[in-house]
Amino acid sequence: DAGIEGLGDGATLPHYLGHGIGSMLDWLGRFRQVLAGTDPLNIAAVHRRMESVASIGVPGCRPAQAAIDMAIHDIVARAQGCPVYELLGGAFRTELELQTQMHGFSVEQLLGVCRHYLDQGFTGLKLKIAGKLRREGYAKALVDEEAEKIARVVASLPESVQIDVDANQGLMNAKVAIGLFEHVRRIAPHPNMSIEQPLHHLDLEGHALIRRMLPYPVILDEAVTSPAAMLQIVRAEAADRIVLKPNRVGGLWPAQKIIDICEAHGIGVSLDTMPFTVLGDTMLCHLGATIRTHYPLDAEGHTFFRETPFVGGVTLQDGRARLSAEPGFGITVDEDRLLATAA
Description:
Elements: H1 14-17, H2 21-35, H3 43-54, H4 62-80, H5 84-87, E1 95-97, E2 99-102, H6 107-119, E3 124-128, H7 131-136, H8 140-155, E4 162-166, H9 174-187, E5 193-196, H10 204-213, E6 218-220, H11 227-236, E7 241-244, H12 246-249, H13 252-264, E8 268-271, H14 278-289, E9 310-312, E10 315-317, E11 320-322, E12 331-333, H15 335-342
Parallel strand pairs: 2-3, 3-4, 4-5, 5-6, 6-7, 7-8
Antiparallel strand pairs: 1-11, 9-12, 10-11
Helix pairs in contact: 2-3, 2-4, 3-4, 6-8, 8-9, 9-10, 11-13
């Protein structure tokens, strides 16, 4: 009624989230029906109404929930004249270190890409692995080849760089994962390396075994789908850190619950783009500003879009993401750009 509008980013990634544009529009239509007349300042009521048609057990609807959740937080913060990070409880920092992802390169190319990002000031690197193993199988020779590739890259990096070696659930079982990373350790025992989601997202027991058998922290990503799932991870003692994607869990509201669970149990929290537009990456940085222990985050998804209708938001420079104190997410839509982008 006050004429305040909010913006939300509905990122879809069918092969990863099982959620395409068609299902996104379908869920947004369902939510529109149940949210009519809801006070946007009552974020709890907004989520309760969305869950009345989606339930908390349907992961496919969560990117649509997250888009609405983002818009609601933008509205409330604009109404209160504060940035979203203040609405979320306040910022520990408004300048955040950055991480980037690397995959699909030869070892020689990876070494060059690593140098490029380190020269730009990035302090975190995510190395994607296990693609060849998924395609060709887990024979010892192939596992050893993968380990030696990882070790060559890791050995080239300073100890200050955070290295997350991400298998995206691709290492079949705990025995394969343990053998691979023991091989890496013998060649290149980097003190700041972690292992991300080596096994299937439901194999919490396997991840707990890897934690016990290896000196490297274990990160879970695809396993983190809700606050309830996070509690299962805690009970299984399956993670030292998680990667939290707000659009996979339904937005900032449930994401904060997950962060609270993690902080209460000494589990680190990293954040990751999907990829988002600058709107989504700005949201990610507002959330990152509120997390006590900071890990380099990936907020560069928007840089891969050729055109954008958005003005404002997070700025990236010298390996850092910087937030303004503008109300809401600090982003407006340029209508002319929007029409040109849609044409």
